[in-house]
Amino acid sequence: MPPFRIHVPRRQCGGYTLLELVVVVSILALLAVVTLPGTRPSAGETLDLAASRVAQAIRFARMEAIRTGNPVYVEINRNTDRLLVAQANLAGATVAAGATLRDPVNKQPLDIILSADPVTAGVDVTNDPFNYATGGRQASVVFDARGLPFSKAGGNYRLMSGGDIALSSAGRQRTVYVDRITGRVRIQ
Fold this sequence. Notes:
2 helices
């Protein structure tokens, strides 16, 4: 006697057709598109991100100067909203060609236009941030091998007397402070 077989139609085997999968994926994609515009950061969040980015870049510059024993240059220019971190060249020009340092996390060059960067768009630098007793306010500072902030003008070196980077967006403001003695950074 031949073995007993039960014939089950294919449709009852339980799977999903390609058409059903395409419909479900399309619905999920539509829901994602509808909800994503509401997830953009507010002006206050963007300002906080920019302040954090500036503070992290300055901290990195200071720690890199201590780690390598080589001076590191930081520029935060209010006219161009530029944030630059590079190896300092104290013999001639402030920054040697090709000396831009890279972000330790994303490995991108630390040469950013804050007002044009997707993460910090709309944020402006509103002052020359670094103050020197015998040179006024400037856009740049150099950290030495001990992490101390200074400036070089001609052949003279002078310690920073204050550092406050004012950032603004949509009527709000955040300030990143650099301690004049230790070079440590905080946000307020």
